[in-house]
Amino acid sequence: MISHGAITVINAIPCGIGATVGVELTTKAIFKVRGDRRTVDIINDTKENTEMARICVRNTYEHFRIEEPKGWSLEINSQIPISRGLKSSSSACNAIVSSVAGIISRDHGKGFDATEESVLDMIRLGVRCAREANVTVTGAFDDACGCHLGGLVITDNRNDMLIGRSEVDIHDVILLVPDTKIRKPSLDVNAFRKMADASRELVNKVDNDWYSVLTANGELIARAAGINDSVAKRAISMGAKAAGVSGTGPAISVVVGKNEGRTFLKDLEHNGYEAIITRTR
Questions:
Q1: Facing residues of 164 across strands?
Q2: The whole model's pTM is what?
């Protein structure tokens, strides 16, 4: 099964309300029941901890009240850099849960269907797995919805409720990814929550202008996390529609016009960052 990625428009840590926009980067999960061993292969980062993936498998079987098989294999391959604020965990949870649920449906006749509530139940199950694995502060329901549903999504992460979703125009998105990773347990959550009032103001604006909200949110998060976001400011000065820290960082997302990403990047000084060009979805 395939899930996608997303970029942050409003970080949910400060006030509990989050917003994201989906992008075309993918995570693919292939689950098979076989043998007498349980193996996880993360193709894109072989050194990454596999505990979250194992939690996803176990909890999906528990969700449908079916005993987890003695042996299974799970292969994960993602285009999304891990622990950079680009929703790698949410995308992986979606992909794994969907893949395992597909096998359960095939073998046992139980599974998630295509109705909105069933889809949201699948997403919530992945969010619960991410919480259990301690790879998220809020549960990242906004991230998981953005990855699975695409478009602009607005959620209340305090109760895992979808507040709104709307389509977005297709834009190129430049992701600027440094070597450093930020693990969620290392975050100073109180520094983020001091931004609650400013974040609530952004919530009131996001439906009408998600571009400026993404940029303003990025500035807030950069201050809270101590991230140098000068490259985002350069991008805005060059005419980007939006630019700012994604998630809790350290990656920066830059939104430009459709088919303008490569030309824009050529003129944007971005030493110290790997650049990935994708699109909104």
A1: 154
A2: 0.93
